[in-house]
Structures are given as C-alpha cells and as structure tokens.
Amino acid sequence: MIDHLFNGLLTALSFDILPILIFGVVGGITLGAMPGLTATMGVAILLPFTFGMDSTAALVMLIGVYIGGIYGGSIAAILLNTPGTPASAASVLDGYTLTKNGQAARALSISAISSFSGGFISTVLLIMFAPILANFALRFNAPEYFALALFGLTIICSISGSNLLKGLLAGTIGLLVSTVGLDPITSVPRFTFGIMDLYSGISIIPVLIGLFALSEALTQLESIVSEKKQALRNFSLKMLSRKDLKDIAPTAIKSGVLGTVIGSVPGAGADISSFVCYNEAKRASKNPEEFGKGSIKGLSAAEAGNNGVTGGALVPLLTLGVPGDAVTAVLLGALVIQGLTPGPLLFTHNPEVVYNIFSSMLVANIVMLIVGLIGIRFFCKIIEIPRILMIPIIMFLSIIGAYSINNSMFDIGVAVFFGLLGFVLIKFRVPLSPILIAMILGPMAETNLRKSLLMYENSWSFLYDRPIALFFLVLTAFSIYSAVKFSKRKKKVIV
Amino acid sequence: MKKIIKTTLAAAALTFIASVSAADYPSKNIRMVVPFSPGGGTDSVGRALANATKDVLDQNIIVMNRTGGAGAVGMSFGAGQRPDGYTLTVVTREIASLPQMGLMQHTADDFKLIRMVNLDPAVVLVSQDSPYQNIADLVAAAKKKDGALKFASTAKPNFYLMALEKSQNIKLNAIPYNGASEAIPAVLGNHTDVTMVTPGEAISQIKSGQLKALGVMSEERIAYLPQTPTLKEQGFDVVTGTWRGIGVPKNTPDEVVETLGAAFDKAMASPDFKQFMENGAMTIHNLDAKAFTEFVKNDVKNLGALIN
Amino acid sequence: MVMKRTPSTKNCAWGAFFKKVTDMNVKNIILPSVIIVISLVALYFISQFAVPSFQDASVGSKFFPTAIAVIQIIICVCIILGEIFHKDPQQDSAPLFNKYSIFGAVFIIGYATAIYFLGYLAATLLAFFLYLVFFKTTKRYYYLIAIVFTLVIYYVFANVFYVALPEGLFAGLFYD
To answer: How far apart are the first and last CA of chain A?
Structure first.
C-alpha cells in the first residue's frame, strides 16, 4: 500500500500531471465562485474533454475541479454574501459578517485553511478506512436517512438564536416550498397547477441565488444614497493570527472527520455536511452566542465540513461502485469511459488507478491551500470595486447563474421571486438560512419516512429497532432541548 | 436611423430564412437536450454521442441538461423548439410511458424520431447471500410471502417489475428509490430483497460477486453477462428493458433528418463510441427512423397494457 | 418586558389589551397574517390532490403538506400573540421600501423579462446602461466596463463553460 501511494504521489507531482492538476483546481475555484455554477457542472462540462486523455490525467483533472469547486463556492459567499452552491451557504453565516467587519482576508484565510484541513483529513481517512466506512454506509437506509434528516432540521432551531419562532416560520416556508412537484413516492402532483416546470419541484440553486445574492444586492442598493457619499469599505489585508489557528484547529479537525462520515453515506453531500458540522461546532462551543456574529469557529466548521465530504464521497464510489453524490456520479462516468470498473474490483485489478486518485487528492488539497492563500490579495480586490458597479454585476451573474444550472427561464423567475421574498423577509427579521436547510432536508425526511413505512408495512417500529436511526433520534431530541434552553437563556439576558 | 433598422431587420430576416433552409445544414452549433441530470446514464450516452457526431457534422454539439418530471420537462422542451434541426433531443422510454400516465403533454408523435441508439434489457439482481438462486425461487417466494418481498425500485411505477408481476400474477412490495445508485446499495445492505436494473448500472457489483444476477429480461443472452440465463430460458416469458434514441421536433424538414440520420450512423459506428458503450456495458441498437418509430409505437402499446 | 411608549394603562383589562393592539407596530403582524392566509389557501389545494393510482401507505402524499401548513399557522398565531403582549424592543419603524430598493426590484424583474425576449447580450447591455443612467453616472469608463463585462461573460459562458446563454425570442432576427 505504501509503495502504491508513493508511486501515486510521484505521478501526481510529475511534470506531466501537476500542471493539469493545478489547472483543474484553479478552474474549479473559478467555476465554484460563480453563482449557479457548481462543482458537479464543472466536472460534467470537462468530462467530454477527457475522452481522449489518458486515464490518470483525466481523473486528476476532474478531481482537481471537484476539490477546487467546493472551495471556490465559499469565496463569493464570504466576500459578497452570494454562496455559489448550497454547500457554501453555511459559510455565509459567519464569513460575510467578518467581511462586513473589515476582516475579509482573515475570513478567507480561515476558509482556505479549514477547507484544506477538511479535505486532507478526509482523504487520509479514505485511504486508511475506506472498507470500514463503506460497511458503515451500507447500514444506512430509509429509516437512518429519515432520522439523519430530522437531526439536520433541528439546526434551524440552533441558528435561529433568540428569534426561534421566526426561524421556525422560515423553516416551514422552506418545507412547504419543498413539497411542490410530483410526490416522490406516488407521483401525485402537488401544488403544480398544471405547470410543467413545477413537476420536478422547485430547484434549490435558483432559490439559493435569490435568497442570498439577489436580496443582498437589493439591500445594498437601498443603502446607496448617492454615488458620492458611498465610501470605500475599509478592510485590512491581515490574515489569521497564530491564536486564530489555535482556536480553530480542534473544530476544523473534528468537522473534517464528521464531513468524511457524512460524505461516505450515499445521498448526503456537502450541503448537509456543512450545516451539520456548523451545528455541532455551535453545540460544543463554550460561547455559542458568538455563532452567526462572525465566529471564526463557525466559519471553520462549515468550511472543513463541506470539503470534508470530498474524500468521504469517494468511499461508496471506490468500494461499492455506486456514487456518493452528484459529483462522484460524474466521476463514475469518467472511470467507465476510461474502461475501468469502479467498485471493489478496482482495488485488486487497478490499484495504481486507486492510488493515483488518492495521491492526486492529497496534492490537490495542498494546491488548493496554496492557491487559496496566494489568491486572497486578488479576491479582496472584489470588495474594492465600487458598489455602484458591483450591484448590477451581482444581479446579472445571479440571473445568468440561475438560468445556466438547468437552462431554464423558469428558474430565472424562481430566483427573482425568492430574491424579492428574501428582501421582504429580511425587513421582518426572518432569518433566511432555515428556508434553505428545510428545502434540502425536507424532501429527505418525507421520502425516507414514507419509504420506511413501506419497508415496515406501516409499522413504526423502525424508529426504535435500528440502532443508527435511534442514535440520530436521540441526538435530535437533545438538540431541540438545548436550542430551547438556549433561546430562553438569551431572552433573559435581553430583559 | 430608421433606414438602418429596416435594412438590419431585412438582412436578419434573410439570414433567418437562410438558416431554416436545409441546403447548407448544419451551418452553426447544434444543441442536444438531455432530459436527465449530468452524470447519469442518459447524460453520458448523450455526451458521448454528441462527441462522436460533432466530427461527422463538423459543427459543435452542445449538450444542454434540462431535467425534471422524470424526463418530461426536457423532452417537452425539446419537442417545442424550432423545427430547424438545431435542437436535438435524447428521447428515452419515458416518452412512451409518461403521456399515458397523464404526466406529460407531449408524446412520441411530437417528434420525428431519427435513430435508436441503445436498447438494454433489465437484469434481476439479489445480494450475494440471498437465498434465491433463480427466478423460480424468487417467484415462489413472492407467492408465499404474498406481497411482502421487498423490491428496490429505480422508478415509480417500475415497468420491469410490473411486467414480471403481471405475467406471474404476483405482487411485490415496491419501495421507490431514486435511481440505480440508491437501489443497489439497498440490496447490498440487505434492506431490500431484489432489484432490477440495466447491466451497465450494476456490472461492477455483478463482476465482483456482491450482486447475483438471477436472469436477464431479454430474448437472448447478452454479451456482457454470458453466464446469466434469460428469463425465457427459465420458463418465464418476460422481456423488458429500456432504450434511448434521438428525436427532433416533428416539423423538421426531411433533408435535415436524413443528414442527421447518416451522421448518427457514422458516429455510432465509430470506434470511440463503440468502446464507450462497451465500457459502460451498454448495447448499441441502431434502428433507422422508420424502424425506431414503429418500435416506439409498439412499446407505447405494451406499456399501455401495464398501466391500465 | 417593559413597554416604554405606553403612557398610562387604563384600569380595565380590555382597555389595556386594546391599547396594546393599537400601540404596536402594524408592520409586525402583516407578515404572519399574510402567511396564515397563504397556508389556508395551501390547505385548500392539498384537499384537492389527486388520489394516487399506484401504491400508498398510512402516510400519504397529503400528510406532510398538511402538517407543515398547520404548524405554520400555529407559529404565525404565536408570533402575532407575541407581538401583542411582548413588543420586540429592537423593532425599527423604517419604511419597507425606499426609492432605491423599489428601483432595484423593478430592475431585476425588468431584466429577467428582457432576457426572455431579447436574449442575454441585448438585455444585459440595455439593463446595464439604464442602471448607470438612473444613477446619473458620468464616468465614461463605467459604460466601457459595462460593455466589456457583458461581452466577456458571453464569451466565457459559451466557450469555456459550454453554457448557451438565452438567445431570446427574436434570436433568429439578431444573432444568426
């Protein structure tokens, strides 16, 4: 194993491969930073170009795009409050607050280091424990997914803070929106009103773009009184301090491990992971009230959490031959095109391919860290662009982004609607992230509850006779209890 | 100013007409609508075919994923485009089933079907430690357990299963999963008893022995699974599977359809595309426009019998 | 919680309640009230859902939407009651929209409509110029940036990302 890994590293660092890897990572970061363009799309777009490439180069490039893409989404989230993908929505909570406080460089450096930590830990765990993780992942089915989704939904309680009722209201709005479309179990149309575009439900990315990017653009526009009066936002180029690094290290490592486990379960991806890690970091924190107000630990947890998925998601791909998320589905296609059979046989028949993948992931994470840290200076220039120019640019990019995810005019309408809705909700002090969390997890909860009932022939015994499901249900109860306690404590402080 | 606008419009109108005329087709990039998301089987076949055809036509073919409604959104979108041959649509078996279930307004008649690309049978799969060794075991168990045998379904409703259920007068507990990538782990983890997917979707698990193939739902054994007997051989006359092809909006000029048909013939015969399909354990099944249209008509009838 | 702006409370309990209702910021109960109405409409539509033709379990397609709508109504009622009895001290009374945010909303809707009819290139150039004119920008290079931005994005999407941007309904007339 060691010599395979060593050979793999030599390949990844060779003159033929390293430039391709760097190209992939940089391309992925650029793509991920655009609203609406995701790591999945990047990998899918590049796939046909790999037809003619040799298999190592092809896989290395795609992996670079994957790892860079998930990190890139956070740059726009932190600097402009416009998360490029649902996976970086949790980074907005603290990252953008830090930017508003003039600490963009600090936030970006924390993001780069945490993403690296998450991605690197995840890859190491993948190399060492892939078969164990795979066996664990196989024990997940409908009841476990249902319990996991319920646990995830309790995040809404914890990120709503003192405004519990309004957070819950936002959650129910998201849940209701997520029921639009054909019922996932019986194909009965729900709230479709005969409109074809609604049959598949309302896509998350246009909603995300509307809620965060467009509503933020509107809010900023409102505060512009005249071009002359607007001052340049002051910010320092100071990166994170040694103390910061010490502060975030435990969170970043824990979130990386947690992200790997979540990633290795098929069907749970970077979006769920970043919110779950954020929630866990907040629960474990001694001062949870800092979260959402520019906590570096919160940012670090979200960032390590979403990149932590990268290694985990390859577990089912490499060990079972089934993709763990949308990106690995495309990677599976790439392996197949190269004439390789993903799954357990890959380890015995083509170990060099497996270890090339492993080592290029390790190297890609390092490249991402270096590019991310060097890039901070350039990324920060974005804030220096006069707001009067930046606002329309964000609006245009948002709308094009909403369009390009599914080439759909309807999605533009969805983004505009949620942009206006988000703007109004901000005015009423309703938090927006719960809408997104509910849209991601609501369908997962509903589908899997109903699948479980089908499996158990309408008996509810799956709630207690499956240990993993029971574990998550207990966590759920605990999470609700502590959120309610926390919101009560906070009210007392105000009064 | 007015004059400029007028001349521009006139010129534009002329180019517009010119672009419709079939003589110089294709004179610009072509779009290919794929009604499923990137990374799936339909998407990868579409992209591989686009890649192979672009050299033949000497025009770029841009794949456009338009997902939703189990393919209904993308196919309806493709059917409603300008019939100039610059928008191709990957049509899948859903075009035959969805309209009959009232889930899609357009039907196969809204397309001029150009070529069928692949036709793959379904394979009946159980996990390696399953007690069932052949289809007879499975059918007997299904009868005995009376609807309690758990079937991991890749779609709702599942026509592979319904074909077997109808012919044997049995009933399984179909649990709807989101495609093969969820249904296969459900069988691997012994959460469900059996599933049916196409060979390409499960070839790696079959080869590694994690999944046992009980039978292929085709007329004859297939090249990818030479050891696996068909259902017919085992005495169960059930043949089903899935297919994909290419269509254009129904008013597309015949010359354009012929140009495209000839291009697809070349593309499907190209070594690259053949290799791609072989790697993915998919079977190229090139039917020309007439045969494909006939095939789809029959399939609509077959599915109609199951649905109603 | 102390109600600062309540001068003297009348002896009668109903009087106090009435006082509280009139005193609070009406803005704060608009949103929950609107959402209650939407939930009720949703409940009506849920009752109209078709009966599935295939399979069903004890928890059917109506269960989740119904539960969500009911919970949503309960939450909204709680928020309204909370507003009446514990006025949120943080509430400001700034107007919902100002001139610029109304412009922004109209601008976004207008751009989305324009891109449908005119396609990406024409709509974006037009919208960007209108925007700069609205803010009475005199800097020439801003207009230049608008042109460069529009073209660069067009090029990058078409040739690097392989995403065909909307051509608009009149595509044949302009871009062929």
So the answer is: 62
Give dist(CA B199, CA B224) in Å, integer: 8
Contacts of A15 (CB under 8 A, 6+ apart): none
Count of Cβ atoms closer than 10 Å to residue A344 Cβ: 20
Q: Residue A489 pLDDT more than 70?
A: no
Cα of A428 to nearest chain C Cα, Å: 7
Q: CA B218, B122, B281: angle at the middle one, nearest 5?
A: 95
* Structural fold of domain B28-120+241-307: D-Maltodextrin-Binding Protein; domain 2 (3.40.190)
The answer to whether A329 contacts B39, with C-beta atoms less than 8 Å apart, is yes
Domain ranges in chain B? 28-120+241-307, 139-216
Mind listing the pLDDT tens digit for each residue in C43-80?
999 988 877 655 556 678 889 999 999 999 999 999 88
Q: Which residue did the predictor score with more confidence, C52 or C175?
A: C52
Give the one of B37, B44, B207 whose C-beta lies nearest to A345's C-beta: B207
> Do B28 and C176 make contact, defined as CB atoms within 8 angstroms?
yes
Contacts of B18 in chain C (CB under 8 A): 176
Query: Which among A26, A30, A178, A179 is the top mutation candidate for probing chain C, defined by the most C β-carbons within 10 Å of its own β-carbon?
Result: A179
**Confidence check: pLDDT of A112 > 90:** yes
**pLDDT tens digits along A69-88:** 889 889 988 998 888 778 88
pLDDT beyond 90 at A321: no
Q: Which residue has the tokens 């109960």?
A: C29
Dihedral angle sign, alpha carbons of residues C171, C172, C173, C175: positive
Could you read off the pLDDT of B131-155 as tens digits, one per residue?
A: 999 999 999 999 998 888 999 988 7
CA dihedral A374, A375, A380, A382 (to 10 degrees): 160
Residue partners of A193: CB distance under 8 A and separation at least 6? none
What average pLDDT score do residues C5-13 get? 49
Write out pLDDT tens, residues B221-242.
999 999 999 999 999 999 999 9
Contact (CB, 8 A) for C121 and C149: no
**Helices C63-85 and A164-178 sit at what angle, rounded to 10 degrees?**
160
Tens digits of residue pLDDT in B256-287: 999 999 999 999 999 988 988 888 889 999 99
Q: Does the beta-carbon distance from C172 to B12 stay under 8 Å? A: yes
Contact A406 B175 (CB under 8 A): no
Nearest CA in chain A to B63: A45
Can you read off the two tokens belonging to residue C5? 């702006």
Segments making up each domain of chain C, as ranges: 13-85, 99-174
| pLDDT tier for residue C100 given thresholds of 50, 70 and 90 | confident
Question: CB of A266 within 8 Å of any CB in chain B?
Answer: yes
Cα distance between residue C63 and residue C43, in whole Å: 11
Shortest distance, CA C5 to any CA of chain A (angstroms): 16
Q: Which residue out of A221, A228, A412, A456 would a mutagenesis test of the C interface target, given it has the greatest number of C Cβ atoms within 10 Å?
A: A221
Euclidean distance between the first and the last CA atom of chain B, given in angstroms as a whole number: 63
Using CB atoms and an 8 Å cut-off, which of residues 456-475 of chain A contact chain C? 458
What share of chain B in percent tops pLDDT 70?
92
| Best residue in A218, A219, A384, A430 for a mutation probing chain C (most C CBs within 10 Å) | A218
Q: Helix (H, G, I), strand (E, B), or coil: what is residue B127?
A: strand
C136 SS3 class: coil
Give pLDDT, residue A494: 44
* Percent of chain A scoring above 90 in pLDDT: 29
- CATH number of the domain located at residue range(s) B139-216 in this protein: 3.40.190.10
Q: What is the mean pLDDT of residues B38-62?
A: 84
**Three-state DSSP class for residue B114:** strand
- What is the per-residue DSSP string for A145-173? HHHHHHHHHTHHHHHHTT-HHHHHHHHHH
Residues forming beta bridges with residue A453, ordered by sequence position = none
